[in-house]
Write a structure and sequence with these properties.
With 202 residues, the protein is of the alpha/beta class. 51% of the residues lie in helices and 15% in strands.
Length: 202
Amino acid sequence: MVIRVLVAEDMHIVRGALVALLRLEPDIEVVSEVACGDEILAAARTSRTQVAVIDIDLPGKDGLTAATELHEQLPEVRTLILTSLGRPGTLRRALAAKVNGFLLKDAPAEKLANAVRGVAAGRRMVDGDLALAAWDTVECPLTPREIDVLRLTAEGRDTLEVAAKAFLSTGTVRNYLTTIVSKLNARNRVDAIRIAKESGWI
């Protein structure tokens, strides 16, 4: 049986390479290509996708948000997340989003095809070394709300913009940021953002 695959990757050259690699496999058919996270759900629905191969860093909705949306609205579609950053915290976020597979972009071509086959068959496909690293790492000490505030701050928004976006008062945002800096033992907000990004928490 041929596996119907959607590829979501915003870099044209990378997307072209992924599609070309997958089309070499006799049991895999690429039925849709998109460059933006906002397009994934509609494309998966119209192309009757079975496996969505999704870059974690997409414009619009990021890969994990899109994967969560697929899981909620098209639960029959399996998701395989691709990332260039093999951080344990990123893997934890992916697993929390109920993705079916997690693979580094620099993995060998046959590993990609095998991961697609694995998730299509209902297995969870995760790079072994990365899974072990994630097992050994400390859980993120931040609450989901604190992560939201820090992520918005990391996008370059000031306190007023973060407050408006998160439906909070500016005082609450400042309190959250103070707590975040303290929890991460950071020197300041910029250092807190660095720590969270390096840990794969945002």
